[in-house]
């Protein structure tokens, strides 16, 4: 599997590091569960209203590192198994951190990044366009994510020790492809000639060790969409990069359950905008360098994109280009979807002309002005989201641009999905600006989908093709040029220790959120059974590569998310008095599928699957399910069910 290969090469990158850095920091890593309601809530990513959760394949986690230099400058970075990040979440996480730590953490030095899995519950972004396919805001999703993101940073803070940081790179081939190659070809031939591939193939890793060289964690950045599971998937999953993280953590946390153990391994998003993992097409269901500079800094600025007017140097024309932003808008090709997830209507990629019928529908929601239409050319506007205000803001207008500097590594936290060439240009721009202002060579990492989500960013040339990514570049043809301008200024200011204006803060919208999602009314069970009753017991014996399936009478999993716990355990008998947990609902080998059997009476059942892998030890096993049911007259009550034991034979 491609994700297995990524994890293997991350291990290779770890092995390529040699020697200890002379520079020391305080470093800490942490992890926390952020699994939201696994059933009856739509997933975020494909915008498919039919993609409603039915259970869990893997739990999803937030993984954090905290670094502090000798001067007390501190940065915190979190990679979360989520579609993306929303600023409402960041604002809440900062609030909780400041309640505990005062001003130690703030907007400037905390970055929250999503891995871009399309298989986790939505309803946390607080902008209507992104929550509309989820049927609105989901407080349960928001709360578990906010608390988990906070806990990951808190645990990393609690785990701070004197340590060192290393940088490594390796090349990973045959795990990603460019899903919009015709757009990529719009970029100048002389620029494309500088690169061997039309996607980035380099995995970049930051490794954290203590002064005894004990490995604490490894954070990896690689450009690939987390869409190995397509829009037919109904089970919560961290997808390919999440699976790679689980494999990496399993290697360094032996005999620990997924999501447990001291070592934290993360695979973070980068410039993945036009990059697909589906190298065979969509289907249904080197050497290491020290960070040798003893400094860590951060800089942040809010930018009002529609009202941005500036200029940027165009290295191709060798002229200064004036750039301006547009009111947010989505183009026709946005509705066409991608090869990873096609759209629901007959829209086509590359559409540069409009349609009277769809314009009528558009104008009923919010009509673009003639200035908007001209500003976005050649994009035909399907949704004038910047003009839509009911019931609240549809897409952000103010974005979060942030840089974190750790030694000679700069992490550029971008609020969207940069395409391959857009990311390459930004890296080069930041590297050049750091050299000009600070006189040092830096390694620049693009951290995508960070702090707030504003869809895509393509190069000006790619914008002309108006494929999905260009149609979803919401601030118009100069979007990328604006980011180039802003990040160049931020880089120079950071290298010179200059302060920048904070910019206008995004609006506070917590008190205007709407939702069509309903809560759990009550749970019931058939006569002569009870909650936890094992309706379908396992067979007496199984072999390697066979699948165990058991069924319980259950309550609704939304009654209790079992955060940092599990809905079930697969247990192996050690002796007459002791059973040991072998697998949980966070394990790749297991699946939990919930379904209603009688909506009126509130009946439901839970199917638990365990695929017996070749690594499974032979012996006697049983499966335990834990849950809560909601009583019709009020209150929630725990229950538990246990299967009879069964045997797994030696291969």
From TrEMBL:
Endpoints of the signal sequence: 1-23
UniProt keyword annotations, A-Z: Glycoprotein, Hydrolase, Lipid metabolism, Metal-binding, Secreted, Signal, Sphingolipid metabolism, Zinc
UniProt key word Transmembrane: no
Record flagged with keyword Repeat: no
One Pfam family here: Ceramidase_alk
Cofactor note text: Binds 1 zinc ion per subunit.
Active site (catalytic residues): 276
Family: Belongs to the neutral ceramidase family.
Protein name: Neutral ceramidase
Gene behind this protein: LOC108050870
């Amino acid at each position: 599997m491609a994700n297995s290969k990524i994890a293997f090469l991350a291990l290779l990158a770890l092995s390529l590091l040699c020697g200890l850095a002379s520079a020391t920091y305080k470093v800490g890593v942490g992890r926390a569960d952020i699994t939201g309601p696994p059933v009856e809530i739509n997933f975020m990513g494909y915008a498919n209203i039919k993609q409603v959760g039915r259970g869990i394949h893997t739990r999803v986690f937030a993984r954090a590192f905290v670094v502090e230099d000798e001067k007390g400058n501190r940065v915190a970075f979190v990679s979360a198994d989520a579609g993306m990040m929303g600023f409402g979440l960041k604002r809440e996480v900062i609030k909780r951190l400041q309640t505990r730590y005062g001003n130690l953490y703030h907007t400037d030095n905390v970055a929250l990044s999503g891995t871009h899995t399309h298989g986790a519950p939505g309803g946390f972004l607080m902008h209507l366009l992104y929550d509309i396919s989820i049927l609105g805001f989901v407080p349960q999703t928001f709360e578990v994510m906010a608390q988990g993101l906070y806990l990951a940073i808190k645990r990393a803070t609690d785990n701070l020790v004197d340590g060192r940081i290393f940088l490594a790179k390796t090349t990973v081939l045959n795990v990603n492809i460019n899903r919009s190659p015709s757009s990529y070809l719009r970029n100048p031939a002389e620029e494309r000639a500088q690169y061997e591939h039309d996607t980035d193939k380099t995995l970049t890793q930051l490794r954290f060790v203590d002064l005894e060289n004990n490995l604490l964690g490894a954070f990896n950045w690689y450009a690939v969409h987390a869409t190995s599971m397509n829009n037919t998937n109904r089970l919560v999953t961290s997808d390919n990069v999440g699976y790679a993280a689980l494999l990496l953590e399993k290697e360094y946390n032996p005999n620990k359950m997924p999501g447990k153990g001291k070592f934290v391994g993360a695979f973070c998003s980068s410039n993945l905008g036009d990059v697909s993992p589906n190298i065979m097409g969509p289907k249904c269901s080197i050497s290491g360098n020290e960070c040798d500079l003893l400094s860590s800094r951060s800089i942040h600025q809010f930018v009002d994109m529609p009202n941005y007017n500036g200029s940027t140097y165009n290295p191709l024309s060798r002229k200064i280009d004036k750039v301006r932003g547009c009111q947010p808008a989505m183009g026709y090709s946005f509705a066409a979807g991608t090869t990873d997830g096609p759209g629901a209507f007959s829209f086509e990629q590359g559409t540069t002309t409009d349609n009277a019928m769809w314009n009528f529908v558009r104008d009923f929601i919010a009509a673009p002005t003639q200035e908007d239409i001209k500003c976005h050319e050649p994009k035909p506007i399907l949704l004038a989201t910047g003009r839509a205000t009911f019931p609240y803001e549809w897409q952000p207008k103010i974005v979060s641009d942030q840089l974190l500097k750790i030694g000679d590594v700069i992490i550029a936290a971008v609020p969207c999905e940069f395409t391959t060439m857009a990311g390459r240009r930004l890296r080069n721009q930041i590297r050049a600006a750091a050299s000009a202002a600070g006189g040092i060579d830096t390694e620049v990492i693009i951290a995508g989908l960070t702090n707030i989500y504003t869809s895509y960013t393509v190069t000006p040339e790619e914008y002309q093709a108006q494929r999905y990514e260009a149609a979803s570049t919401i601030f118009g043809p100069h979007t990328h040029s604006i980011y180039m301008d802003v990040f160049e200024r931020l880089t120079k200011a950071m290298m010179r220790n200059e302060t920048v204006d904070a910019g206008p803060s995004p609006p506070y919208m917590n008190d205007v959120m709407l939702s069509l999602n309903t809560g759990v009314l009550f749970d019931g069970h058939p006569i002569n059974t009870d909650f936890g009753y094992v309706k379908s017991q396992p067979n007496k014996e199984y072999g390697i590569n066979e699948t165990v399936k058991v069924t319980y009478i259950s309550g609704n999993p939304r009654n209790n998310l079992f955060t940092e716990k599990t809905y079930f355990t697969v247990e192996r008998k050690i002796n007459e008095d002791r059973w040991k947990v072998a697998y949980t609902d966070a394990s790749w080998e297991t699946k939990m599928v919930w379904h209603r059997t009688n909506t009126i009476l509130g009946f439901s059942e839970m199917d638990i699957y365990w695929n017996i892998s070749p690594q499974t030890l032979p012996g006697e096993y049983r499966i335990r399910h834990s849950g809560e049911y909601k009583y019709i007259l009020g209150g929630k009550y725990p229950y538990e069910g246990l299967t009879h034991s069964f045997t797994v034979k030696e291969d």
